[in-house]
Amino acid sequence: MSGHSHWATIKRTKKGRILISSAGVLLGAIFLALAVTTPIEAPNQFFIFMCLTAIFMPLSSANVIATVYDVTVPEVRSTAQAVEYFIENAGAAFAPILTGVIADAYSLQTAILIIPTVTWGLCFIFYLGALFTIDKDHSDLRAQMAARAKAM
To answer: Is the pTM above the cut of 0.70?
Structure first.
C-alpha cells in the first residue's frame, strides 16, 4: 500500500514521501487513540481500529529513510541512516520506562494512549517542518551531484 501511494504522490510532487509519512503517523495515532478508548464491551470495534492502526502506521517507515537518502550525499548516507536509527532506538529504549512511570501515576491505558500518540504527534510536526524544506534540499543535492559529475 505504501509503495502504490508513494508512486501516486511522487509523480505530482517531491513532497510525496513526506505526505504519505505524515498521513500514516497522523491516521495511525488517531486510530490507536480510538482503539485504546474503545469500551471493553466492543471487541469488534477495537479489532477494526487496531487493524486500521496496523495499516497506516507502517506507511512512514520506508518513506522516512528514502527521504533522508533523497537529500543526503552518498558518502554520508549510512551515517544519516545510523543517526536516524539511533534516535528511533533511543525512543524505543526509554518508552518502557516512561510507560511504567505514567502507568504508576495514572493507569496503563493512559500510558499506552499517551506514549505513542505524543510520539507520533511529534513525528507529524517534524514531517510538517520537512515539507517546507524538502524541495530546496532535493534540488541542492541534485545540483551538487550534477556538479560532481560535470567535474569528472
So the answer is: yes
